[in-house]
Amino acid sequence: MIEMQELTKQYGGVNAVQGVTFTAAPGRVTGFLGLNGSGKTTTLRMLLGLSRPTSGQALIAGRRYRDLKQPLRQVGAVLEQGLSHPGQSGRGHLRSQALLCGAGKQRVEELLEHVGLADAAHERTGNYSLGMRQRLAVATALLGEPPVLVLDEPANGLDPSGMAWLRALLRSHAEAGGTVLISSHLLGELELLIDDVVIIADGQVRLESPLAAIAGQQTARLRVRGRDPHALWQAFERAGAQVETDGRVLFVTGLSAEDAGEIALHVRIPLYELTSETPSLEQLFLSLAVAA
User: With 70 as the cut, is the pLDDT of residue 82 above it?
Assistant: First the structure.
């Protein structure tokens, strides 16, 4: 369990983070979203004991990071790129990091295989691609088998197969009872993974909600193309719908797809397209974060 409780951070009298409160629960993947400068990274740094809050507290399993007895066995983090020495091999990096959390050589070999770096384990990390360095960072976070994972942009540099691998890994971790807090700018990819979403803007939480609840609250609109758009427009408006157009496609709100199809049939206008569109996570994020 991760708990942010009225977390505030001031720099020279300016609030970089102000009263941030939210939780990331075990068994769920929580997406933490914010534009650059929103306070997202500052919040994660306070959570991991890299920066002291001005007030409030960030807790992992009910304790501040610095009060955890074996922090690397309780929380694994991916916050920055390039933390491995470029002259060190992938295997050498993991073995040196394993000493800090008491993991053995067998655990290192298991993780190299698990993250897809077994064949490149002997290579210097300075020769790794960005995606390979991300896989190594994830392996490092997993060394101590921690129940809590905190990941800032872990999909950077991953190709589609790598993103699918990461998605499966994090989903498996949550399903086993672990807690995952993840930040990413790849909102379409994130939407396939997360259970809960937290959006921060100007240092304040603008939204905290299960993703499914948001989807249920969003009003879907219909995308409609037909032989006579003008006549369709009039027919839909007579039925009480709101209609907009880009000159080629009608965007209709206030009607179900079934109702729109019945109306088109009644006025005898063939339809070429009838699609229901629900606002995406990206649209929701932009409406809250950019407009803030």
Answer: no
Reply yes or no on whether the pLDDT at 226 is more than 80: yes
Place of tokens 């229901």: 276
**Calpha distance 279→221 (Å, rounded):** 8
Element holding 251 (H helix, E strand): strand 250-253
- Reading phi first (left if > 0) and then psi (alpha if -120 to 50, else beta), residue 240 is in left
- Alpha-carbon Rg for the chain, nearest whole angstrom, is 24
The whole model's pTM is what?
0.80
Tokens for 232, please give them. 């369709």
Pairing relationship of beta strands 148-152 and 2-11 according to DSSP bridges:
unpaired
DSSP 39: S
Query: Tell me: the pLDDT tens digits for 127-146?
Result: 999 899 999 999 999 999 99
Scanning the chain, the segments in alpha helix (DSSP H) are 40-47, 71-74, 90-101, 105-114, 130-142, 160-175, 187-191, 211-217, 229-238, 257-266, 281-289
Whether residue 88 is contained in a domain is answered as: no
Nearest by Cα to 79 from 29, 13, 154 = 154
Question: What pLDDT, on the 0 to 100 scale, is given for residue 288?
Answer: 72
Residues 228, 184 share a domain: no
Query: Residue 183 sits in which domain range?
Result: 2-61+147-215
Residue 231 sits in the same domain as residue 266: yes
Q: What percent of the chain has pLDDT above 90? A: 71
Domain-ending residue, one of 171, 195, 215:
215
Of 38-42, 84-88, 204-208, the least confident: 84-88
List the structure tokens of 83: 């933390």
The Cα–Cα gap between 233 and 239 comes to 10
pLDDT band at 188 (very low <50, low <70, confident <90, very high): confident
Residue in 27, 77, 24 with CA at minimum distance from that of residue 49: 77
